[in-house]
Amino acid sequence: MDDQLALPVGTTLDRFIMRKQEEFPYATGELSQLLRDIALAAKIVNREINRAGLLGITGNYGQQNVQGEEQQKLDVIANIRFIRALRNGGEVCTIISEEDDHVIQTGNTEGKYIVAMDPLDGSSNIDVNVAIGTIFSVYRRTSDASGDGTLEDCLQSGARQVAAGYIIYGSSTMLVYTTGCGVNGFTYEPSLGEFFLSHPMIMTPSEGKIYSCNEGNLNSFPEGIKAYLDYCKEQNYTSRYIGSLVGDFHRNLLKGGVYIYPATAKAPNGKLRLVYECNALAMIIEQAGGMATDGTERILTKTPTELHQRSPLVIGSPEMVEKVHTFLAEKVLTA
Ligand SMILES: O=P(O)(O)OC[C@H]1O[C@](O)(COP(=O)(O)O)[C@@H](O)[C@@H]1O
């Protein structure tokens, strides 16, 4: 964790990015510009979300995405806005999006970066005014920087991320990200159109009392997860699950807790997507002193073979994730 440059709360995102770049003498400024492009798209999407009910942009878009999920109008709008900002910025050659079957070549053939994103996470909550989010991962391309990004560029393990983050559109809008030197959170001030540093160097508590999972799927959970949930109830832990990964993750990051989306009968590989949901949050939680696994393997060491592949996810306070592992291992042994 770099503590050389602890910038004060209230520092603008732009200034923070610039000052952090100065710590890397060989930095070219391209990643900094990419982060600014993401912040710009976040401001635009935030505005659309806030006005959605007035502009008639709530509800279904009338088509399904590659996951077979009904696309919401705001899913499509957020996707367009982030793609446009990244394309216009010029730093990104290829984008992977939850809303697109195939990779998106931006035409920035000199662009050094790949972005994987879930433009709007928590789709089931969009129309009911519950926190939703955007999740993003940034990779440096491994192919020559003269042409479109390759599939190999897009299927790198999470450990190769150069930056990762999310935007939460909740009671306030925040951008939380890491470039591998700690996790910082910025709160959006709409009247000034600026993100300001509000949560410097976030560390998650090693232990917590909150567990988050959809117990509606309990009957098809692995025995180890069922046993862990019983343990949580014996410990009088609190159950909190809003059904938006970003919202549940953000709460648990700050307060301490564990989010679990295991393999189920309905989703034998879990529901969440490794490349643009799990990897980014795994980098954030590890930078904040927490853990992220699929129940056994560290998320960041998994090398994806498909763009939209799913993975079980256990993420949060390290002692709680370890406890889940203990119960999973025990049940495997006694099965
Ligand atoms: O309704 P379920 O099965 O509990 O799933 C909820 C989970 O699925 C998600 O909605 C998946 O994300 P999308 O909304 O982007 O498809 C997560 O945000 C959330 O944690």
UniProtKB/TrEMBL annotation:
EC number annotated for this UniProt entry: 3.1.3.11
Molecular-function annotations in GO: fructose 1,6-bisphosphate 1-phosphatase activity; magnesium ion binding
Pathway(s) this gene product operates in, as recorded in its UniProt entry: Carbohydrate biosynthesis
Signal peptide: none
Localization in the cell: Cytoplasm
Alphabetized Gene3D superfamilies for the sequence: 3.40.190.80, Fructose-1,6-Bisphosphatase, subunit A, domain 1
Gene Ontology BP annotations: fructose 1,6-bisphosphate metabolic process; fructose 6-phosphate metabolic process; fructose metabolic process; gluconeogenesis; sucrose biosynthetic process
Binding, Mg(2+) 2: D118, D121, E277
Domain Fructose-1-6-bisphosphatase class 1 C-terminal: 205-328
Major site of localization recorded for this protein: cytoplasm
Protein keywords: Carbohydrate metabolism, Cytoplasm, Hydrolase, Magnesium, Metal-binding
Family to which this protein belongs: Belongs to the FBPase class 1 family.
HAMAP family on file: FBPase_class1 (MF_01855)
Name of the protein described by the UniProt record: Fructose-1,6-bisphosphatase class 1
